[in-house]
Design brief:
heterodimer, A: 5-stranded mixed β-sheet, 19 helices, 28 strands, about 25% helix, globular, B: alpha+beta, Ubiquitin-like (UB roll), 5-stranded mixed β-sheet, about 35% helix
């Protein structure tokens, strides 16, 4: 029987934490393979140029140098593939440029790798890289997205027709109806805004260690990845031509990802390739500076949104036009972010009948952009919840009442942007928020702030997200070049202990704790009897990994399915042992019993019989107790919530201080509330970072001006408050076995509009008629807006 | 270039190592002494993942040369607990789940322990400012601050 504190819904302490707390975690940079050499990449210091010469002769003679590689070494090798092909408004596939492992012909962003030195030590490799003679003919850098699309603009890729990756309309058939509804509306609120570029900055920089065994012909790659099987498939099949059975990818303890470690990167392919070429294990550890110019970045949308309302303030139409920056190359899932992860969420929590989303994806001479915590959904939520607040102000109505009036209340609800919300209770979640955030006490707090010479503002917003990506057949139709199921093997040992091998990957989410909670509940045994293995393609079934808040909803469901198969087989064995009919066998608290009798047999006796089949129905079933399941979801899950933020603005300096933050979320059923709290906290921390601090900036020549922690303002402990979080509003997901929705990205999606809405509210309370300030809402921007 | 011979004390044990003149204390801990609990998150002293204590002072080991450790007393995450016995801060971080991916955790624990040795009764603001040198991207800091303050309260109660 599981201890009370270990089943579903318990705040079980995280079993992975002891190794992290004692410094005993095993991260990729902690792995050193005997005899390893080290890599240093020579990266472009200009944003755009033609490579005229790459002379490695001097570098090759430097101390410790084993070999120097250039783009020429990769001419016969595949480029980095893109995993999603978006079809444009006119039915044409997106423009898809080549993405070589090392630059060939041109460099296209600061940080584009030109050459790589493999040497005995990292220092020798770095010194030798400086001796490589590179001659680059500078080309004009394409940085601004709208300028990039002008006639005659310099092209990032010479072989494409323009810098436009795609012009996407969604849903194209809605376009005329939306135009008409906006024309006939009683009121239209328009807002133009930027969702600025961010850098994910997991605290562990990326690392790759390639190893090749000449005796067996097997490659091993240790890498900082959220999805080792995806890396194995992409790198093996599309880049290096290594069959999967000769390629093992290991992602051990990974120090945060937030999306940036989903993608297949050049450095992974290089280390795998070079290990065979030089017959040595080859290790690369990114510096933080390199991370700023080589990790895929996030967001970077420029949007105009129009919200139409009838005379009774019902939403009648939404029309958006967004320019989405792809950067210089298409990172693995980049095209899907501003389209299928963004356009499909433009209905938000509201029953707006007409919606049209237009997205122009643009190539520029900047670091590639791809999914970052929330990926498309924060961009959708931000514009929608900002324009609703602006509309409420223009119409002189309460922003909460305006939202409530337009909430979707009946489920399932088919939106005009192609998704169907299975369940939700947006009024219920808002009720929780109003109470938790003590909204009725706000005016008193505002007066207290004003007495101290500060402006106080209250900002609210709702959000909805689509998680648990995704039904494979659906995403296949939408352009995904992968299935998006998840897998699990449940291996029961003879003495009853269990190992679950999951295709999900934990890099902070706590799977090693939550997954056993589920199995412990199903069988009725102690969670300590269950171990989770993940992150190694050699011992886990083909899985798609962890991102998009999908682990418990998809990976957890696969595990449940595999465990159900195990239990069904165990019941057959138990029936034989008890000389009963299988249909009468029940499993409860780790005991199999026969209904209506006193016959019972313990879990451990049945598992032992499975492996010592002396008294066993061998004519009916095989020995052993191990099952695998692949779970392909039938729909997305739709977590939703309502967030409230209170800020104080110093009218003298424009500095914003967050005084209170409350988050009410509906995640459906909860496996471990303590872990869910932490996931929401972390998301809010990142959302506050985006709202107030973080900004990835390029100058017009394409130099990145924010490429260190001195220049890129990460949220620190003194920038954020304690958070009030509540996930008691629960409408279980209707289509997965656990009724779960996913909680990893909610905080980052829900928090930026609350903060900005609060700042605008504070400024209005001081008589400053400011409609909008782009993020990050820095003191300089706030002060300028107040004094405009 | 000849290597430099250093004799120092790490977590109470006298330790000798040879290092290059340009190697940092973090390099030596991780690469020569197999003490990989200290992490390099930036290499510029901005993130605190490599925090250690040297003669009672909290330092970023990525900014200190290994050769400067001669005759000093160094404390790292590996010396924080006693065998299987977690330090009260480690225990409290476990109870609060004040960590997620764990990569910044050793540095934060080392920094927090140093704070509590100087100030056994810190205010929330003092904890936040002291830990402002340690970046965590996972937790939003909420549980970290609570765990440190909770530990301080327990340790005061026990004293």
């Amino acid at each position: 029987m599981p201890k009370d504190h270990e089943g579903i819904g318990a705040g079980t302490k995280r079993r992975e934490d002891v190794r992290f707390l004692t410094g005993a975690g095993n991260y990729t940079d902690d792995i050193n393979v005997h005899g390893q050499a080290h890599v240093h990449f020579l990266r472009s210091d200009v944003a755009h140029g033609r490579l005229k010469k790459v002379d490695t002769a001097a570098a090759e003679g430097m101390p410790g140098v084993i070999r120097v590689f250039t783009g020429a070494d990769f001419e016969g090798v595949g480029g980095l593939p893109c995993g999603w092909c978006v079809t444009d408004r006119h039915g044409q596939p997106m423009q898809e440029p080549a993405h070589p492992v090392l630059a060939q012909g041109k460099v296209r962003h600061v940080g584009d790798p030109i050459a790589a030195v493999v040497a005995e030590t990292a220092e020798q490799a770095r010194d030798a890289a400086e001796a490589i003679e590179v001659e680059i003919e500078d080309l004009p850098a394409v940085i601004d997205m709208k300028a990039a699309l002008e006639e005659g603009a310099t092209k990032v890729h010479d072989d494409l027709t323009s810098n436009l990756c795609y012009d996407w309309g969604f849903v194209e058939e809605n376009r005329e109806a939306v135009d008409k509804a906006i024309k006939e509306a009683a009121h239209v609120t328009t807002l133009e805004l930027k969702n600025q570029r961010l850098v994910a900055n997991p605290m562990e920089p990326r690392v790759a260690v390639g190893d090749f065994n000449r005796g067996t012909g097997e490659h091993t790659l240790y890498t900082t990845s959220q999805n080792p099987h995806v890396i194995r498939l992409l790198m093996g099949a599309f880049v290096l031509g290594i069959p999967e059975h000769k390629l093992r990818v290991v992602a051990p303890d990974v120090g945060g990802g937030f999306g940036s470690k989903i993608f297949h990167y050049a450095e992974e392919a290089f280390c795998t390739f070079a290990a065979k070429a030089v017959n040595r294990p080859v290790k690369w550890t990114s510096s933080r500076s390199e991370a700023f110019i080589s990790d895929a970045q996030g967001r970077d949308h420029v949007t105009k949104i129009e919200l139409a309302l009838d005379k009774d303030n019902n939403f009648t139409a939404i029309r958006t036009e967004t320019y989405a920056n792809m950067g210089a190359y298409l990172s693995t899932f980049a095209p899907s972010v501003p389209t299928w992860l963004h356009g499909t969420l433009m209905a938000g929590n509201y029953k707006t009948p007409n919606i049209y989303v237009n997205v122009k994806a643009v190539f520029t001479n900047t670091v590639p952009v791809d999914a970052y915590r929330g990926a498309g959904r924060p961009e959708a939520t931000y514009q929608l919840e900002r324009v609703i607040d602006k509309a409420a102000r223009e119409l002189g109505v309460d922003p909460i009442a305006l939202r409530r009036q337009n909430f979707v209340t009946e489920f399932p609800y088919a939106t005009p942007v192609a998704v169907e919300y299975d369940t939700g209770d947006y009024h219920g979640t808002m009720d929780v928020l109003e109470k938790m955030a003590d909204l009725s006490g706000f005016e008193a707090r505002r007066k207290e702030s004003e007495a101290r010479g500060k402006l106080r503002g209250l900002g609210l917003n709702c959000y909805i997200e689509a998680c648990g990506i995704a039904p494979s057949q659906l995403v296949g139709q939408l352009g995904a070049r992968a299935g998006l199921y998840e897998s699990a093997t449940v291996r029961v040992n003879a003495t009853g202990g269990i190992v679950v091998m999951t295709g999900s990957h934990s890099h902070g989410q706590g799977h090693e704790t939550t997954f056993p909670q589920v199995i412990a509940d199903m069988i009725g045994i102690d969670a300590d009897m269950i171990e989770i293995e993940h992150g190694d393609t050699a011992n886990t079934p083909m899985g798609m990994g962890t991102y998009g808040s999908r682990s418990i909803a998809v990976g957890g469901s696969a595990m449940v399915r595999a465990a159900e198969k195990v239990i069904n087989k165990a019941k057959k064995i138990a029936a034989h042992l008890m000389e009963a009919s299988e249909a009468d066998v029940e499993l409860k608290d780790g005991q199999f019993s026969v209904a209506g009798t006193d016959k019972s047999v313990a879990w451990g006796d049945v598992t032992l019989a499975a492996y010592v089949p002396h008294n066993y129905p061998l004519d009916e079933i095989e020995p052993g107790l191990e099952e695998t399941a692949f779970y392909d979801p039938s729909n997305f899950t739709y977590p939703a919530g309502a967030y409230a933020c209170e800020v104080e603005v110093d009218p003298e300096t424009g500095k914003v201080e967050i005084k209170r933050f409350a988050a009410a979320d509906d995640f459906g059923n909860i496996i471990n509330p303590m872990i869910v709290d932490g996931q929401v906290h972390g998301g809010i921390g990142q959302g506050i970072g985006q709202a107030l601090l973080e900004n990835c900036v390029y100058d017009e020549s394409g130099q990145i001006l924010s490429a260190s922690f001195m220049d890129y303002a990460m949220p620190r402990a003194d920038d954020v408050p304690f958070y009030d979080v509540d996930h008691s509003s629960q409408t279980p997901c209707t289509h997965n076995p656990l009724g779960v929705k996913g909680c990893g990205e909610a905080g980052a999606i829900g928090s930026p509009p609350a903060v900005v809405n609060a700042v605008i509210d504070a400024l209005h309370s001081g008589g400053h008629k400011v409609d909008h300030i782009d993020m990050p809402v820095s003191p300089a921007r706030v002060w300028a807006a107040m004094n405009a | 270039m000849s290597q430099i011979h250093i004799t120092t004390t790490i977590n109470g044990d006298e330790t000798e190592y040879l290092c290059e003149a340009d190697e940092t204390l973090l390099d030596v801990l991780r690469d020569h002494l197999d003490m990989t609990g200290s992490k390099e998150g930036c290499g510029t002293g901005d993130c605190g993942a490599c925090s250690v204590v040297v003669d009672g002072r909290l330092v970023c080991s990525c900014l200190m040369l290994a050769a400067e450790a001669e005759g000093r007393a160094i404390e790292t995450i590996e010396g924080m607990g006693q065998g299987d016995q977690l330090h009260p801060l480690q225990q409290k971080f476990l109870e609060h789940a004040a960590l997620q991916c764990g990569i910044c955790t050793p540095g934060i624990l080392v920094a927090a322990k140093n704070l509590l040795e100087r100030n056994p009764n810190p205010s929330e603001e003092e904890v936040r400012y002291w830990l402002a040198g340690n970046l965590c991207r996972c937790t939003g800091y909420d549980k970290i601050i609570r765990a440190v303050m909770d530990t301080a309260a327990d340790m005061r109660g026990a004293a």
